[in-house]
Design a protein that fits this description.
By secondary structure, the chain is α/β, with parallel strands linked by helices. The chain has two domains: about 5-100 and about 220-230, Rossmann fold, CATH 3.40.50.1860; about 105-220, 3-Layer(aba) Sandwich (Rossmann fold). Helix content is about 45%, strand content about 10%. It is built from nine helices and seven strands; from the N terminus they run E-H-E-H-E-H-H-E-H-H-E-H-H-E-E-H. It has helices spanning about 15-25, 60-75, 90-95, 105-115, 130-135, 135-140, 155-165, 175-190, 220-230; strands spanning about 5-10, 40, 75-80, 120-125, 145-150, 195-200, 215. Strands 5-4-6-7 form a four-stranded parallel sheet, with helices on one face. A three-stranded parallel sheet has the order 2-1-3, sandwiched between helices. Helix 1 (about 15-25) crosses helix 9 and helix 4 packs across helix 9 (about 220-230). The longest helix has 15 residues, at about 155-165. The chain starts with a strand and ends with a helix. The relative contact order is 0.18. Belongs to the aspartate/glutamate racemases family. This is Aspartate racemase. It holds the Pfam family Asp_Glu_race.
Length: about 240
């Protein structure tokens, strides 16, 4: 019997839906029975993922409960479509006995595999302010040859605002904030940046609206492909 995927979702719901869709779209299935079993716990009640140094209710207890629920429901492994929540990844992993695959590690590993021989290794990371402050990606890339570039403080405000637009479900190509993000990306392209990495799960949902020649990497798609690979393994 193949393995069952557990998705710890709800951060946000549209990003969870995006991951589910990408798993379906990339599974080599001719009939229903060829698809993997997937248990989705869409828990939008998890508190906001802000930097641990900020005074707020921690999302950790709810993340642990959600992971435990997935394990109890029969998931053989867990994936979580939220980059910022990986601040608490190691703590959550301690509370379940099934594998919990890191979106951060998978993204970095995939970039090194597919783009390791690329001459221009300048990466633009678009993420929440919390993810940037926590240096989740810089830590994983520390031994690589890639050059990590993040937006300045004013640009970051625009990125965070665009993420909120996506979370609201009101995405359209004429949205002023998304247009500003697109302009920012093209400016970085003109400055010699080769790759864009959407390190917030709402960012790839904007990709169809961007008009740019910069190559865009979708960590949600990379996570979907990892999940398919693991699900096809025999128990």
């Amino acid at each position: 019997m193949n393995k069952t995927i557990g998705i710890l979702g709800g951060m946000g719901p549209f990003a969870t839906l995006d991951l589910f869709g990408k798993i379906l779209e990339n599974t080599p299935a001719a009939v229903d029975q060829d698809h993997p079993r997937i248990i989705i716990y869409n828990n939008p009640k998890i508190p906001p993922r802000i930097h641990p140094a900020c005074p707020s209710q921690s999302p950790l207890p709810e993340l642990i409960k959600s992971a435990a629920l997935l394990q109890k429901a029969g998931a053989d492994f867990i994936i979580m479509p939220c980059h910022t929540a990986h601040i608490w990844y190691e703590e959550v992993q301690k509370h379940v006995s099934i594998p919990f695959y890191s979106m951060i590690k998978n993204t970095v590993r995939s970039i090194e595999h597919f783009y390791g021989n690329k001459e221009n290794k300048k990466l633009l990371l678009l993420a929440t302010e919390t993810t940037i402050q926590s240096k989740l990606y810089e830590s994983e890339f520390k031994d690589s040859s890639f050059s990590i570039i993040v937006p300045n403080s004013e640009e970051q405000k625009i990125v965070d605002k665009a993420i909120k637009v996506v979370k609201s479900g009101d995405i359209n190509p004429r949205d002023f904030t998304i247009e500003k993000v697109n302009q920012m990306i093209n400016q970085y392209k003109d400055d010699g940046v080769a790759l864009l990495v959407g390190c917030c799960t709402e960012i790839p949902l904007m990709y169809p609206l961007f008009q740019t020649e910069m190559e865009m990497i979708d960590p949600t798609l990379l996570l979907a492909k990892l999940a398919i690979e693991k699900a096809m393994e025999e128990k």
